[in-house]
Design goal:
11 helices; 78% helix; 283 residues; mainly alpha
């Protein structure tokens, strides 16, 4: 009986191409699934809301059906009321957020660059920031009344806290080795801040700014719920007073959609800043 070697099958070019194609399809499917995953919970909630209203599980006086909310949304959009109230709310949050962010960057940078100033100021700052936004409302009502300055101050306060703390943290996490190199090359204090401290602080600063906008947006809605005659928060209160819950839900959807869109925008900007950092500062 002769020993005859059985030739092993070797992959051909077509087999390799097929494997690459299958891997490519699998990667695309996983990518699509990862993009659709965040929308799974909202879709399930919307389906339960729709089914519950159609089958009478929820009284329409308590929670109107999505179709009615959509009709109310379109009516607000066509009448121009939605655009007017949305623009007013955006103006308030942008002004307050801008003031709070600039002030937070200045305070945080000062604390991060001076240990002495941090020792004197930071304990009192940490004590004051424990007071919630609404806790300042009665005091500010006596000082500035119910006008626009009240809203700007409270929104700025909400944004100032995370920006200040993230700036302080970012300024303190610059690599000591790079600072020593900068001193060795004779960098001035300003040059060390621009070329060493700030690049290292970019991720922390970006995270703080994104958190600051979230806090500012929440503060805006709270302030408009309490003391306002215009804006998206006012629409929610107005609908509740008239027991028009479709109006309440339409305004809530707009508030959530704007907050989500701006958060995604800031998230993409943060990712771009991380990619643009020098390689010496990348994690």
């Amino acid at each position: 009986m002769s020993d005859t070697a059985i030739p092993l099958a070797t992959p051909t070019a077509d087999d390799a191409h097929g494997q690459r194609k299958r891997r490519s399809i699998g990667e695309r499917l996983r990518h699509q699934a990862s993009r659709l995953a965040p929308w799974l919970l909202p879709a399930v909630l919307l389906a339960l809301w729709t089914i519950g209203c159609e089958r009478g599980w929820i009284a329409p006086q308590i929670l109107p059906p999505p179709s009615r909310v959509y009709e109310t949304f379109m009516e607000l959009a066509q009448s121009g009321d939605l655009a007017r109230h949305t623009l007013i709310s955006l103006q308030r949050v942008l002004v307050g957020f801008g003031i709070g962010t600039v002030a937070g960057l200045g305070i945080g940078a000062a604390l991060g660059l001076s240990r002495t100033l941090e020792a004197y100021v930071l304990p009192g700052f940490n004590a004051l920031v424990q007071i919630p936004v609404l806790g300042w409302l009665p005091f500010l009502l006596l000082l500035v009344g119910v006008g626009e300055p009240l809203k700007y101050i409270l929104i700025a306060h909400a944004a100032l806290v995370p920006v200040t703390l993230s700036t302080l943290q970012g300024f303190r996490q610059s690599p000591h080795e790079l600072e020593e190199v900068a001193r060795g090359y004779g960098y001035s204090p300003w040059q060390r801040i621009v070329h060493v401290v700030l690049p290292a602080a970019v991720p922390t600063l970006a995270t703080g700014v994104r958190l600051a906008f979230t806090k500012a947006w929440l503060a805006l809605v709270v302030v408009e719920l309490v003391a306002s005659s215009e804006g998206l928060g006012y629409l929610i209160v107005y609908g509740r007073q008239l027991f028009q819950l479709d109006l309440v839900m339409a305004a809530v959807v707009v508030v959530g959609a704007i907050g989500f869109a701006v958060n995604r925008l800031l998230d993409s900007l943060e990712a771009r800043l991380r990619r643009g950092r020098p390689s010496a500062f990348r994690e």
